[in-house]
Amino acid sequence: MKYNITIGWLYPELMSTYGDRGNILVLQKRAQWRGIEVKILPISFTTPLSSINKIDLLFGGGAQDKEQEILISDLRDKKGTTIKNLIEKNIPSLFVCGSPQLMGNFYEPAVGKRIKGLGIFNVDTIHPENENHRLIGNIIGKIQIPELKNELVVGFENHGGRSYLKDSTLPFAKVIKGFGNNGHDKTEGMIYKNAIGCYFHGPLLPKNPKIADFLLKKALEVKYNKKITLDELDDFLESKAQKAIANKLGTAL
Amino acid sequence: MNVLLIFLLKIISRSIRTLNLGNGSTWPGHLMLFLQPHFISSELAFSKTKVIFIIGTNGKTTTSKLLKTILKKNNFTVIQNTSGANLMNGIASALISNANVNGKITADFALFEIDENIFPLIVKEITPSYIVLLNLFRDQLDRYGEVRTIIEKWKKTVSSLPQEVILICNGDDPQIAYLGSNSNHVVKYFGLDKAESLPSDSFSSDSLFCPKCFHKLTYSVTYFSHLGKYYCKHCSFKRPKVDLTNAIFYPLPGTYNEYNILASELTAKSIGIPNENIENGLKSFKPAFGRQEIIQIGNKKVQIFLSKNPTSFNQSLQTIQKLNAKHILFCLNDRIPDGRDISWIWDTDLSLLNTCPHIYVSGDRVYDMALRIKYEGIKDVTIVQNIEIELTEVLKSLPDNETLYILPTYTAMLEIRKIILGKKIL
Questions:
Q1: How close, in Å, is residue A243 to chain B by CA atoms?
Q2: What is the pLDDT of residues A17-48, one digit of tens each?
Q3: A159 contacts chain B (CB < 8 A)
Q4: Would you call A64 and B346 a contact, using CB atoms and an 8 Å cutoff?
Q5: Measured between CB atoms, does A235 come within 8 Å of chain B?
Q6: What is this model's ipTM?
Q7: What is the overall mean pLDDT for chain B?
Q8: Closest-CA residue in chain B for A240?
Q9: Which end of chain B has the lower number of beta carbons within 10 A, N or C?
Q10: What is the CATH T-level fold of the domain B2-283, as seen in this structure?
């Protein structure tokens, strides 16, 4: 059977701070290499809700503060309900860098008013006044998603905001080396149903192909309503690149 | 006090160079600023030297070298900071090494390339006569922060400067043009005047939104990244009328170099240098190290294109593709001067690479670069684990009369030059 999926990409022109496009490339290629047809739907101010409703996988990258300000009312007030419904329907999603802040309860910037989020994740984010205290560097963690439990995830983080998980919200990963959500509680990111939010910024998926495959698998399972096993791919370079970061951080794999 | 310190630091710095321990382009200044925090201002305060600042993400070194060549052709004496040594310590070092026996600077012009973050600090020490504002692209987010943060700092800095300061601005970069149009200074603009858009690389664009009202800009022509002819449908903001669109002579290929050449010519014109001398200067120009520098090795060649962020990377690729490159080596490092975050490689446009038969990758982050190429759908890539050992092999396998094009990040560029030329530069 020939599968096909549509990947929605939130505001590529506004939410692409640093290599976010890498995630789209990886999802697209890993699907195509397995014979799965992929359509990329860039979501902009003018995208109709009916198109967003047909998305099988959703991705959001990082926005600069000003860009965030430009898009938040369109994202939250016009498209918020539709996006929340997708997540409730188990549509897999990945939000990296600054976008999880917008998907939480609120984001309080260092300067300016508190921005209300979409409330997909039960998470509060506060940006401390001192802009110089950004959390920057390579990071490695253990994934907490049941299907990928204790698999490693590596990447780079660079954020001013500190996020705090509320009630029983589950983290995406436990930090081994790096800062994570707030630099204190060793949590990194958050999950809700098949949605993943994390501070890993830019190209998370190239070095973490298992997460890419998790998203693709879930997208197909939800769309075709059956158990899916993806064909194995040669991930030699991916695992080498992942090990290189682990070595850099002094974490033996 | 300064005279004695300058004398001492000069001697120490010379011995360091003789012993091949480095070239002393930063630390003498570092030490001096530790002892005399306002050394830079005191050194230049009573000097007749006119200071020119060159700022921007890409093209600082090449533009400085172009302008220096023109000024020298006009018989001006010129001092400048060493390429890349563009922090306070680099500028102080340049002053130390160029001071005369009385500890004074006597050159007609001081040409300083200035780091994006240092610009607000250096104007507290020196008021320049001219500021050349080249462009602003995303670069080393871990070090510089977001593009918007930088432009805000620059705007504040420019508005704090006295009115006599002349700004030479890139009119094709909306952020730079907005900064110019908002200032009280004399502003001259350079820009391209091509009727047709060049192949777009919009993944790396940072400023597609109006810097005045934040609505989306409309481009009638795009050159690369966010440079082009633009206007805002929502407010009155548009590309300003530009004063210079064609240079007398282009000594370097590549669209990005057209901007550098225009910037140096427009500055020279503003200084009052006659066209003839500008032309002679441009014609005698030799590229700065690592910036399209050609190194001849027997009957083979290596040409180095410093590629340190998406825009410079894309521009390098476009240029070497026009040169029909068949052998390309990428060298990706992630040390502090390169930026520790290599995410930017995913904002590059590798579609041009499909036509290149021999691709090599190397550097601290060799596997990240290999992955980037893999996900472009290109299968045949050679991993060069240890560049110091394996570069010779790569060169051996290169057919006679062929060129190996190397696209390195900053520290990789220094490393490769050192391997090829057998000496240290910085």
A1: 10
A2: 789 999 999 999 999 999 999 999 999 999 99
A3: no
A4: no
A5: no
A6: 0.94
A7: 90
A8: B367
A9: N
A10: UDP-N-acetylmuramoyl-L-alanine:D-glutamate ligase (3.40.1190)
Residue B284 to residues B69, B249, B263, B368, Cα–Cα distance (Å): 8, 11, 17, 40
pLDDT digits (tens, 9 = 90+) for B390-419: 998 999 999 999 999 999 999 999 999 989
Closest in B145, B208, B367 to A244, CB measured = B367
Q: State residue B203's pLDDT score.
A: 58
Architecture category of domain B291-421 in CATH:
Alpha-Beta Complex (3.90)
Q: What is the pTM of this model?
A: 0.83
* Chain A, nearest residue to B208 by Cα: A13
Q: With 0-12 CB in 10 A as exposed, 13-18 as middle and 19+ as buried, what is B379?
A: exposed
Q: Check residue B425 and give its pLDDT.
A: 42
Does B202 score more than 60 pLDDT?
no
- Chain A interface test: which of B343, B347, B369, B379 (most A C-beta within 10 Å): B343
B339 near B307, Cβ under 8 Å? no
Distance of alpha carbon B269 from the chain centroid = 21
Query: In b/e form, how buried is each residue of A104-138, taking b as 16+ CB within 10 angstroms?
Result: bbebbbeeeeebbbbebbebbbbbeeeeeebbbeb
What are A116-125's pLDDT values in tens digits?
999 999 999 9
What confidence score (pLDDT) does residue A190 get? 97
Interface test with B, best of A9, A16, A18, A247 (most B CBs within 10 A): A18
In residues, how long is chain A? Answer: 253
> Would an 8 Å CB–CB cutoff place A184 in contact with chain B?
no
Q: Considering chain B, what percentage of its residues have pLDDT values greater than 70? A: 94
Known catalytic residue at A97: yes
Query: Around Cβ A78, how many Cβ atoms within 10 Å?
Result: 12
Residues in chain B within 8 Å Cβ distance of A238:
371
Residue B372 pLDDT exceeds 80: yes
pLDDT, mean of residues B27-41: 89
Q: Where are the domains of chain B?
A: 2-283, 291-421
Structural domains in chain A plus CATH codes: 4-248 (3.40.50.880)
What separation in angstroms does the CA of B217 have from each of A238, B232, B237, B241?
Answer: 38, 5, 9, 17
User: Which residues of B are less than 8 Å from A69 in CB distance?
Assistant: 214
Low-confidence winner among A2-16, B53-67, B289-303 (lowest mean pLDDT): B289-303
